[in-house]
Amino acid sequence: MKLLVMETKLHLRDWPTLLFTIGLPVGLLIVLGFSIPGFTEQQEGGQRIVDTHMPSTMALLSLLTLSCSVLPAVLATYRQQGVLRRMSTTPVHPARVLGAQLLINLAVGTVSTIVLIVAGRLAFGAAPPRQWAWFVLVFLLGTAALLAIGLVIAALAPSAKSAPGIGSMVMFPLMFLGGVWVPREVMPDALRVISDFSVAGPFAQALKDTWAGQPPQLLHLVVVAAGLAVFGGLAVRWFRWE
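User: That's the sequence. What structure does it adopt?
Assistant: Structure tokens below.
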């Protein structure tokens, strides 16, 4: 708990990154919602884009930023500066640093998503996720899978400076496959199949489904769980403490 408190204080000191992670998705939701009239008009089924698609997509954006940019940069810096190596000589195992970072990033992602829900409600009258139980399950499972990808990036990054660059090379394709730039509904069939078997695509669709009041598709849950198992295993196998 002391380590968690210390790491939290260090994380809060980097307030520009924290503000960017939480503020960018909320800002995009509000700006795009007010500037594009079609986003607030009812679509087929009575849903608006600001009700389901935009908040779920912005939540994915926030979680991808944490997983592919923030987490790898912090861990790669700790390794390069010898923090993990020095801690390995104490009773505090370096794995606890890893666990603290995972919990902190999960907490930041949760706060960002809650702020998105509140902002959507206040700005557009958007309803919160209608399938709360499924939403929480999908959120935790998908966030864990994305953080596992971040751990793999941190393991492969040769230096602290290279970690953000490698993370960006992973994050932007995942953003595309997750429908951040092009909605999955209008993707060509072949591209949608690729999206369905990425971690970001099924995660984004499952968030959107639970937000709209529908249970997630079994295929999407299986793909996200498989991604957690695969990337979590690779992170454990490849991670270097020094």
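Residues 2-238 form one domain.
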